[in-house]
Structures are given as C-alpha cells and as structure tokens.
Amino acid sequence: MKHLKPVNRKARKIEKENDAVPVVEAQGTIPFMHTCTSVFNPGYEIDFANGMTQLCTPIETDLFGTTDMFCWWPGQAPDTINNPDWNADCTRAMKDWMKLKVVKPEW
Amino acid sequence: MEDMSRASGATILLPHRRFTAAGEAYVYATETGGLFRMDETMRNALSAIAASGASAIPPDVLSDLQRAGLLRYGEGSEPFSRAALPALRVRTLVLMLTYSCNLSCRYCYEAREEGCVPPVETGGTRPEMSVETLRKSIAFLLDNSGENRKVSVIFFGGEPLLRFPLLRAAVPMARAMAEGRGKEVSFSLTTNGTLITREIAAFLKGNGVSACVSIDGPPRIHDRNRPYASGRGSYEDAARGLSYLLEDKNGYPLAARVTLGRGAVDVGKTFEHLRGLGFDEVGFAPASAAEGSAAALTEGELERVMSGFRDLAAGYVADVRERRMPAFSNLTQVLALIHRGDPMPYPCGAGIGMLAVDPSGAFYPCHRLCGVGDALGDPEKGVAGEVRARFLEGARQRRESACDACWAKNFCSGGCYHDAYLRQGDLFAPSTHYCRWIRELFLLGLTTYVRIQNETPTFLEAMFGERGTS
C-alpha cells in the first residue's frame, strides 16, 4: 500500500495478503480504469462519494465532458485529426446533438 | 431505483475512526480491524470523501482504501452476518457455588437492590450448589470443550468462600477428571476477600487458584460501597484477607476488580491505593444499575472516570517504557483487541465459549444472567440448541441493526446484555447510554496503542501476539 502504513497486527496481515497478489500495471493512458470499468458503474444514480454532487450526465447532455479521456466511461467519438469538423454544427449539445455529422469509413 | 443502485454498485465509505497522535494521522478501519498510519494524500482524500465533496480519487488512493476495508462498492452486509451461529465450545465455566453473601453491597445485582436473581421464596432457584451438580457441571465442561485443551473454571457467587469446603473438594476432583480426558483445567475465584484465612490462602496458592478480589478503593470509598448487612464497612476484613494472599506471594498474580458506583469515581486515587496494597492488576467497571438508580453513575461522573482513565493510560505508557508490567487491566483488554484486530460479532463469550451454572444446576449464558430469561439447559440434558440460538440471534440482530454504522462496534458489539436488561428491560437493547463513553474509551485505546507502538513496539507482540501472555 502506498498511502497507508500498517500499525497493528491485522493491518500487517492485510498488507501482506495484498502484496501476494501480483499487481498488473494499467496498459494505456486512460486514467480511472480502476473505477468505472471495473465496477460497472454508469454513474447515473450516485457518485463515488455516495452523494449526488458529482453525478455523471448522459452523453447527450454533456457531449464534450463525456467524450474526453478523463471521463470514467468515455463515449465513442470520431477522432478530431481526421474529422476536425464532426461536431461543427453542434455548439450546444443538449439542443443540437441531432446535427452531429455521421462519420463513415471511406474506401 | 433501489435495485438499480445496488446493481450499479454505489461506493460506500465504511465505518472508521480517524485520529491524530504524536503529530501523525491514523485511521482504524472497522470492517477489517486494521489500524493504519495515513500519509497526507490519504488524509486529505479521506476527509474529502467523508464530506461528500471529493471530485476524484486517484487510483492508488482508491486501491489502498479498498484494501484496508475503508471503501466498498455495492451494498450488502458483512459476511459474518450470514454465517452460521458459532458452535458451542465451552472454555470457561462459571460455577455459582451459592447465592448467599456475607456483604450487602449497595450496587449488588444479586437479588438485592437491582435484583435479577429470583429470590427463593418466590419460587426461585435453590441457593446452594450440591457436590453432585458441581461434578456433573465440570464433566459437561470437559466433554463440551471441543478442541480446547485448556479449560477454565471460575468460582463465583454470592460469596464463593462461604462454600470453601465445596471449593476445596472441587479442585482436585476437576483436575483428576481433566487428566482422564487429556485436558488441562485452571481455576480462578472471585471473592470479596473478607473470609480469606491463612488456611484458605495457602490452599489457593498451593493449588494454583488465582484470585480476583472485589475491592473498591480506600476505606472511605470501600466501606460506603461494600458494607455488611449491619452497615459496618468490610474494608478491614478484606484487607486482612488480602494480606494472607500476599504472604509469600511467589509469583501468584492478584487482580482487583473495582466497581464504580455513584459518588466514588476517583479512579486515580483508587488505582494508587490498590497498587500500594500489592495488586498486580486493577480493573474498573461502572455498576450495572437501572436507570435512575442511586448506584448509577451520572454523566458528569462518567466524564470524571474517563479523565482518570486518561491519566492511567499515560502511566501505562510510562510503565511499558520502563519495562514494568502495567496494571491497568481495562486498557490491557482494549489494546489486545486492537492488536489482534479480529472483528468481534458478540460483546463477550456468553453462550459461546462461556457458560454459567446456577446453584440448582441450570445453565445460563453468564454469571450475571443467571435467572434472567430461559435457562440454556443443564449438565445432564446439555444445552438446548434452540434457546441458545435465540439468544445469539438476538445479539446478532442488535449489532446489525443498531450498531452497524458505528466505528467502535468491534470493541463493544452493543454492550453487556445484563446492563441492557437492567437499564432497558431488554437483553438485546443496545447500551446507548454508554455509547459515547465507550467510544471515548476505545479512542483512548487507539491513541495509547500508537504511542506504545512508536516508543516500545516489542511490548505489543510480547503481550498480545501468538505467544503473548494476555
């Protein structure tokens, strides 16, 4: 454990047991892999602190908050290098999300 | 919605206690019993989560919180709540040799002031134990101790030394019975000390019967709390009995058990006095008393007791540092619980590892509960499974409903059944009148544990480890 140092015998036992389990380093760079994807928490009902102040919003109401890599469970969105204007007509996602362009592969 | 929340696995901050000691921050995780030192990141994260204002938890902090048992996803109770009731493996048998007593202590629960033992004239149990009942009870203990090779017999009452001939016969008899079954039996006696003669003291020492003497402090306090029926104080006689025990002591341990009643709560002075008399251990307990009783401690007095306990804890740390055996046994018990850290689903061993036999031969969960509720059985028919299950189920439900969210539940598990019975008329009512006090006591235990760990860490493992003495 990184932030907790065991003091009593039980705590030492807990640390020892956990150390025996190999820790797999996260692959890739998406933070919070540990939370949402491992507990299947879509975040609609309650936030991680057991309150409601940090609730996630559906992709329709917070398009730009949920498509970036800092979201617990990022929404699918086209890459902005090959498709720089996929959301050009959608300045206010709640109202304009129907205007998002459909990105299709070309061959 | 409730089901959705469960399925989605809401994050729950589990019961814990954060505290600081010697400038460092610590956390005690109730669900696992682990005690940890926190770094600043953890301290800030935990404060933020507790305040429901955390915006994000870094993964390494989250991982630590989960491992320590501070954070859980989803709902559902702890595994032990669904586990089967603990098997009966009797290790300690309390023998109520008699209900008679030569004293008339003002807080006594034995059919006097607060009374829960039914008096004989109203159809209660026979007040004296027969040799036959004693023999059958010891046989029951030895045959129902499971894999425990060592068992313990406690002579209790009333005043058990009123039946000294019975006690004197019981010791060699139990030893012989134990030997035949490949077991080892130890004995202890809880007495008011007034009847101890040189002969009795020699017998106790010669036969390895340890003594716990009920004594409340200097004469002024003791005589007020523990008079004879005539009103005369019993200090002088108890002190004389004690002096016989102390003659040629030769490693024989002596424990004092102090009952704190209203108007007598100077624990520091009492402790000093009893240490001066030669006691190796001194333990305090507030009198079990009905609400509003003249013996019950007031809120202010409980505060004074705690303040006295804090001073004794400081002395305890100093004793450990100087390699002297500390004598404040309440703290020793709390430190042992903290060190081992095993969550405790029941407040005591009553009905699990401990049984009491009343003078008529009926089993009860403990000595204080003799005559309260249904008997658990007797040495011939054994323990009635359904009565015992009802008792333990009541205790478990109390802990799960009333105490589930409390950080101190591993230490108290709802408190003494008998105390709840006197105060609230229900064995399984949580002892809410003591909640705050008990939490303070355990917090004192946690801070003392940390101080000792920092100063003299070898003490803890030597006392409470696998090969520890306590």
Overview of this protein structure:
The complex is a heterodimer of chains A (107) and B (470). Chain A is an all-alpha fold and 107 residues long. Chain A has one domain (8-102): Quinohemoprotein amine dehydrogenase, CATH 4.10.940. Chain A is built from four helices and one strand. Chain A has helices at residues 9-19, 36-39, 63-66, 93-96, and one strand spanning 4-6. The longest helix of chain A is centred in the first third of the chain and has 11 residues, at 9-19. The radius of gyration of chain A is 20 Å and the shape is elongated. Chain A starts with a strand and ends in an 11-residue tail after the last helix. The model of chain A is unreliable at 26-43 (pLDDT under 50). By secondary structure, chain B is α/β, with parallel strands linked by helices. In chain B, 41% of the residues lie in helices and 15% in strands. In chain B, strand 2 and strand 3 (24-29) form a beta hairpin. The longest helix of chain B has 23 residues, at 299-321. The chains are: A mainly alpha (107), B alpha/beta (470).
Layout of helices and strands:
The complex is a heterodimer of chains A (107) and B (470).
Chain A: E1 4-6, H1 9-19, H2 36-39, H3 63-66, H4 93-96
Chain B: H1 2-8, E1 11-13, E2 16-21, E3 24-29, E4 34-38, H2 40-50, H3 59-68, E5 71-73, H4 79-82, E6 92-96, H5 131-143, E7 150-156, H6 164-180, E8 184-191, H7 198-206, E9 209-214, H8 219-225, H9 235-246, E10 254-260, H10 267-277, E11 281-286, H11 299-321, H12 329-340, E12 354-357, E13 363-364, E14 377-378, E15 382-383, H13 385-402, H14 409-412, H15 417-424, H16 435-455, H17 457-464
Parallel strand pairs in B: 6-7, 6-12, 7-8, 8-9, 9-10, 10-11
Antiparallel strand pairs in B: 1-5, 2-3, 3-4, 12-13, 14-15
Helix pairs in contact in B: 5-6, 11-16, 12-16, 12-17, 16-17
